[in-house]
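Aim 2 progress update. The chain analyzed this quarter is reproduced below.
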Amino acid sequence: MASFRSQNRPPNFSLSKKDGGEELPFDKRRKIGGGRLAGTTAASRARQVLSNVNSNNQDGASDAASIAEVPESVEFTKEEVEALLNEKIKGKKFDLKGKLEQLSESNKKFRLCIKWFQGVEQSLNQEQEKLRNLLEASERKCVGIEDERKRKEDELNTINGELRQSNVVLQEKLAKEESDKLEAIEGRTNEQNGRAAAEALNASLSQELEKIRQEKADADLKVASVNDMYKRLQEYNTSLQQYNSRLQTDLAAANATLQRVEKEKSTIVENLGSLRGHYATLQDQLSSFKASQNEAAKQKETLNTELIRLQGELQQVRDERDRMHSQVLLLTSEIEKYKETTGKSVAELDNLMMKSNALEETCASQREQLHVLQDQLASANEKLKMADLSAFETRTEYEEQKLLIRQLRDRLADAELQINEKEMLRRRLHNTILELKGNIRVFCRVRPLSPEDGCASDLPVISYPTSTEGHESGIDLIQSGQKYAFTFDKVFTHEASQNDVFVEISELVQSALDGYKVCIFAYGQTGSGKTYTMMGRPQSIEQKGLIPRSLEQIFETSQRLSAQGWKFKMQASVLEIYNETIRDLLVTNRTSWDAARTENGALGKQYAIKHDANGSTFVSDLTIIDVCSSKEVASLLHQAGQCRSVGKTQMNEQSSRSHFVFTLRISAVNETTEKHGVLNLIDLAGSERLSKSGATGEQLKETQAINKSLSCLADVIFALAKKESHVPFRNSKLTYLLQPCLSGDSKTLMFVNLSPEPSSVNESLCSLRFAARVNTCQIGVPRRQTAVRSSDFV
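Predicted C-alpha cells:
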C-alpha cells in the first residue's frame, strides 16, 4: 500500500480535528489517503514500501529490506495471481492493526507480483524484438536473393533469345546463299551447254562453208575450162570471136563479181589467184589448140550444140552462184551474231565464275562464323544449365528461408499471445491497485514564484514536511503564524517539471484505452497555474501540458496495439461553460456565434446535456470530429484555444473566464472484444474574490457565474462526502456534466493548484480545504465498457 497520511492521531485512535473543526473517523481517513498513482519506477516503489512498513510497524525492518531487495528467482503462477486478486481481508471488525498488517502483507505480494510481471514483460519484449529483427533480416535476404535470381534469369533469357535470333538469321542467310550458289552452278552448266552447242554449230557452219568453198572451186574450174574452150574456138573461128568476146565480157563481169566475193573472204581471193594460174595454163593450151584449128572447124557443129548446152549450164551455174552468194551472206551474218553472242556469253560466264568464287568465299566465311556461333550457343547452353542449377539451389534456399520465416512467425504469434495474456493480467492488477487507492484522487501542485509576484523578501507561506511519512504527499500552509497541514495522494513542489507530473498520471490515461471513463480536472484560484498544468506551452517539448502529453501517449499506445490486431476509432470534442451556457469551440460558422455573444453574452444555439443508461454523457448538437493522430488533436486544441473566453483582471493578465472541457471517446475492437473508453480533461475557471479581482460590468457577471458553479461543485462534493441520498448535480451545468465522473462511474483525479505568493494565502487555504474534502469522498467502483464483438468494427 502507498503511504498513509499522518493526522497526528493519539495512540487510542480517537477522533481528530481537520478542515475547519470537522471530525472524521480514522479508519475512513486511512482508506482514503492510501495509494499513489502507478507508473513510478521500481526503485521508488520499493522505497515507498520500505517507508510504509517503517511508519506502520517499527519491528518490521527485516521485512522492508526483503521487499526492497526482491529476488529475481521469484515467480508466480496464474492460480497464485488469481488467489492474490481474490484475497479478502479477514479479521475482526475493529481490529484495525490486524487489517493494516494484512493490507501491508497483501501490498508486498502485489509489488512482488508486479515486479515479476514487469521482468517477464521486458524479457518477452526483448525476445519479440529479436524475433522481429531476425524476421526482417530473413525477409530482406530472401527478397535480395529472389531479385538476384530473377535478374540472372532475365539476363540469360535475353542472351539466349539474342543467340537464337542470330542463329535463325544466319540459317536464313546460309539457305539463301546455298540457293544462290545452286542457281549460279545451274546457270554455269547451262552456259557451258550453250557454249558447247554454239561451238558445235560453229563447227557445222565451218564444214558447210568448206563445202561451199569446194563447190565454188569446182565452179571456178568449170568456168576456167569453159574460158579455155572459148579461147580455142575464137582462134579456130572468127565467127566465134564475137561470141567469145561476149563470153569474155560476161567472164569479166563474173570475175568482177568474184573479186567482190574475194574481197569479202580471203579464201575466195586465194582461189581466184590459183584460177589465174590455171588461166595462164589455158592460154598455153590455146596456142597449142591453134594448130588443131582445122580439127576444131570440123567439130564446129558439135561445139555449137555443146555451146548451147554450156550456155544452159552456165545459166544454171550463175543461178547456183547467186544462191551460194546469198547463203554466204546469210552465214556470214549468222557467224557475226554467233560471235557477238559467244562474246557476251563468255563475259557473262566470267562474271558468273567471279560471283561463284565470291559466293564460295562468303559461304566459307559464313561456315566459319556458323561454327563460332554454334560454339557460342553451346557455351550459352552450358551457362543456362549452370544458371538453372543455381536457380534451383536459390529456390531451395528460398523455400528453406520461407519455412524458417513461417516458424519465426509462429513463434512471434505465440509470443504476442503470451504478451496479450500478460497485458490483460497487468491491467487487472493495475485497476485493482487503482481501486485500492481510491477512485477520486487528489494531486496538489504549487507553481513557482514569478518576478511579477514581487514578494521575494517575504517569508514563504508554503512548506513541505521532511519526515519520511509525509515525503511527496504532505504540504503545510502558514497563515498568520498558524500552520495548517494537509496530505494528498501526491504533492508536486514548485521544482516539479511537466514530465514529472505526467509520469504520475500516465497509468490513469492508459485506463481510457482499457475501456474506462477517466476524468482529470484542475482546480484553483486565478493565476495558480491550472491552464499551464493542463495545456502548458504546446510549442515547447519540455513545457507541454497534461492534455497534449496524454494524447501523444494514447496515439502511440494505439499504434503499438494495432500490430496486435486491435483497431481504434477516436472522436474529439471541445466545449466551454461560459456564464452557465455551453459553447461549442469547434463550430465552423462563427459569425452568428459572435453576434449572439455580443448581444447577450450567450450563444444563440442551446446545447443540452444528456446521460444514458450506461452512464455515458452526451451534449446534443455538439461538433464531434474523428481524429487519427496527435497532430490533428493539437490543431483542434489550438483552434479551441483561440475561441476560448479569456479576460484581464487584477489577479491575472489573461484569466480563463470559462470552464474548458476536452473529451476524447475511444473505441477499440479486435476479433473477440470491443471496448469503449472516455477521457475527459477539464481546465476549470479560476476561483477569485471580487474584492481582489476588481471585476466590474461584464466581468462581474462572469466572476459571479464562475464562483456559483464552483460553489455548486463544492455542494456536490460535500453531499458525496456525507453520503446524502440527494446529490445536487443539476444545480449547475458544470456539476451536471461531471455527474458520471463524480458518481462512481469514472476514475477521477483532481489537481489543486496553489499560488505561493503571501497575498493569496486565504484562497490557497480554501482550495486546500476543498481538495481535502474531495479526497475524503468514496464513490462506487468504475465500470469497464467492454462487450463481445458481434460485428465488424466500423
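Residues 596 and 603 are 5 Å apart (CA to CA). The chain is about 60% helix and 15% strand. These observations will guide the mutagenesis experiments scheduled for the next reporting period.
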